[in-house]
């Protein structure tokens, strides 16, 4: 399995780049935000709990989130030849849990893509997405809280994955195609594109 973590602040373009990467490398996409929004839409017990955290811009507690990820991995990605993890891990305990979880399944994280975008651009993008999609947590108050949470709880992952020699820093404030070109220039030497396999 070839596994990629795509990482960055809300609005950095994780979802857009994930779609392109899935096509190029034939990966299975796991977006923890999408998994949670699906539960909210179906009004499941998990959806009710998740909604409280998401609407306040807070992270779902690690223990719960790690269980959800393990369940998703075993149910949706068993046959996958690789996974792109979009929105997970978001904390150091999640990163340690991901490593353990993948090791138990005979695999590992092979590359981490960190998308760097200045904060004023992130806020503009998220406000626009809120207007276009109606996504409930894309309002100014929740956006500010999510960015604060990102700086406090998620940025330590850069150091962790740099030490693991997996981190690729990519400027995300260009067009989606330009950002994708930069990403593939780092990943092609590691993963063969799907059509070449
Ligand atoms: P996203 O779609 O990745 O921006 O995630 C939307 C929201 O879902 C986040 O603001 C968090 O409240 C929650 N969430 C998604 N992934 C995680 C995670 N790995 N850990 C904790 N909360 C998460």
Report strand %: 5-15%
Any ligands, ions or cofactors bound here, and which? adenosine monophosphate
Note poorly predicted spans. none
**Helix percentage range:** 55-70%
- Report the C-alpha radius of gyration, rounded: 16 Å
Spatial gap, N to C terminus? 13 Å
Number of strands: 5
Mean pLDDT: 94
Structural class: alpha/beta
Individual helix count? 9
For the biggest sheet, the summary is: 5 strands, parallel
Physical arrangement of strands within the biggest beta sheet: 2-3-1-4-5
* N-to-C SSE string, H for helix and E for strand: EHEHHHEHEHHHEH
Which word captures the global form?
A: globular
Detailed description of the structure:
This protein is an alpha/beta fold and 197 residues long. Helices cover 56% and strands 12% of the residues. The protein has 9 helices and 5 strands, in the order βαβαααβαβαααβα. The protein has helices at 14-25, 32-41, 45-55, 62-76, 92-104, 119-133, 140-154, 156-163, 176-187; strands at residues 4-8, 28-31, 83-86, 111-116, 167-171. Strands 2-3-1-4-5 form a 5-stranded parallel β-sheet, sandwiched between helices. The model has no long low-confidence stretch (mean pLDDT 94). Bound molecules: adenosine monophosphate. Residues 10, 32-33, 36, 53-54, 58-60, 65, 87-88, 90, 94, 137, 146 line the site of adenosine monophosphate (AMP).
């Amino acid at each position: 399995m070839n596994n990629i973590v795509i990482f960055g602040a809300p609005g950095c373009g994780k979802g857009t780049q994930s779609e392109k990467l899935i096509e190029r490398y034939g990966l299975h996409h796991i977006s923890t935000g999408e998994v949670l929004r699906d539960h909210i839409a179906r009004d499941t017990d998990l959806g009710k709990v998740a909604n409280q955290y998401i609407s306040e811009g807070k992270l779902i507690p690690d223990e719960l989130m790690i269980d959800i990820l393990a369940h998703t991995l075993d149910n949706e990605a068993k046959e996958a030849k690789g996974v792109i993890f979009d929105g997970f891990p978001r904390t150091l305990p999640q990163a340690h849990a991901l490593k353990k979880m993948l090791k138990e399944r005979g695999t590992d994280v092979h590359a981490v893509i960190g998308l760097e975008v200045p904060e004023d651009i992130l806020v503009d993008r998220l406000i626009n997405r809120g207007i276009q999609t109606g996504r409930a947590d894309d309002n100014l108050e929740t956006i500010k809280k999510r960015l604060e949470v990102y700086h406090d709880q998620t940025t330590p992952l850069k150091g962790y994955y740099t030490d693991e020699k997996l981190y690729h820093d990519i400027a995300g404030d260009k067009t989606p195609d330009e950002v994708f070109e930069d990403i593939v220039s780092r990943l092609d030497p590691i993963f063969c594109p799907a059509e070449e396999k």
